[in-house]
Design brief:
Radius of gyration: 19 Å
Oligomer: single chain
Number of helices: 11
Structural class: alpha/beta
Number of strands: 9
Order of helices and strands: HEHEHEHEHEHEEHEHHEHH
Shape: globular
């Protein structure tokens, strides 16, 4: 089943076939970034707006690079530089953007559901660049692409996701995607940062989801270990005593990594807090795919832009 949706709002509503179509498309687009001239005319004449209400380095930059490598015109808007600071509502902002006839809008917003709301207001394709603690679909897609590139397939893999599960849109999107493609996900973190009903997040799936009480139980035998950043900007309470205590109890060190499979890979969506959720020795080791994730993010986002607005007849 090809990807025929107008928008990319989340992973939860996608089928395994739709996910695979994005990953397959990304394979062909990755080759473009290795050329001497990294540009093709695929989206010439199209306009992509990056509308970010939260700080971002990797997501916004990679979307901008992806659009430009496809020859699209790109416009970056931040909330601090928009008319929202003058009291304009998001609805009116959306209507004004609609009047300018963009082809795609990439939006990141601190509130869950905003991309879905925007998708109902405009004709442009809406791409969710992260909405609150809800979802971050393009991150999950690039993570899956990276894993598949190194492991060949996702089905049957044991994947540990460790850290701030409660506030992580990356964890949610990855959990949906990995289990849809047959991987077995184990999550762990402080009890205060793992929702009690998280194991019910997925329904019928080829894969499975287990919540572990200890980080060691999640990592043991894992093929992939994905660490998450502590999202202090989303916390309203003290969820753990201190960063030092968190590092001791839940940080990924070389010693803990020994519990994983001998060829286990390490991932992190960034930004990384070295010495807190993960040690520098692990980040800089041969097992780390952190920079591979960044590289693949451009190819995956090129594929998404193409599938949404670049195909013939769109």
């Amino acid at each position: 089943m090809p990807y025929n949706r107008k928008d990319l709002l989340g992973i939860r509503e996608l089928s395994a076939e739709e996910i695979k179509s994005v990953l397959d498309s990304a394979e062909s687009f990755k080759e473009i970034s290795a050329r001497a001239i990294k540009k093709v005319p695929t989206l010439r004449g199209k306009t992509v707006i990056n509308f970010f209400f939260e700080a971002s380095t990797r997501t916004r930059t990679s979307f901008e690079i992806a659009a430009k490598r496809l020859s699209a015109d790109t416009i970056n808007i931040s909330a601090s530089n928009s008319s929202l600071t003058k009291g304009e509502t998001l609805v009116d902002t959306a209507r004004n953007l609609q009047a300018m006839a963009p082809d795609a809008i990439v939006i990141r917003h601190p509130s869950a559901g905003v991309p879905h709301q925007l998708a109902q207001m405009v004709d442009a394709s809406i791409i969710n660049g992260g909405d609150g603690a809800h979802e971050h679909p393009t991150q999950a897609l690039l993570d899956a692409f990276t894993i598949r590139e190194h492991k060949g397939a996702l089905s049957g893999l044991q994947v540990a996701i460790i850290g701030d599960i409660m506030h992580s849109r990356v964890a949610r999107s990855n959990t949906h995607l990995l289990t849809k493609l047959g991987a077995h996900v184990r999550v762990a973190g402080p009890r205060t940062l793992v929702p009690p009903d998280y194991a019910k997040l997925i329904g019928d799936s080829e894969g499975s989801l287990v919540v572990c009480g200890r980080i060691e139980d999640a990592i043991e035998g894992a093929d992939v270990v994905m660490m998450l950043r502590i999202q202090r900007e989303r916390m309203t309470d003290a969820f753990f005593p201190s960063l030092k205590e968190y590092s001791i109890q839940y940080g990924l060190t070389l010693r803990r990594l020994e519990l994983a499979a001998s060829d286990a890979l390490v991932m992190h969506p960034g930004p990384i807090n070295r010495g807190v959720e993960i040690s520098s020795e692990v980040v800089d080791s041969a097992r780390s795919l952190v920079l591979d994730q960044v590289t693949n993010g451009v190819a995956v986002r090129m594929a998404i832009l193409f599938l949404l607005v670049g195909r013939e007849g769109q």
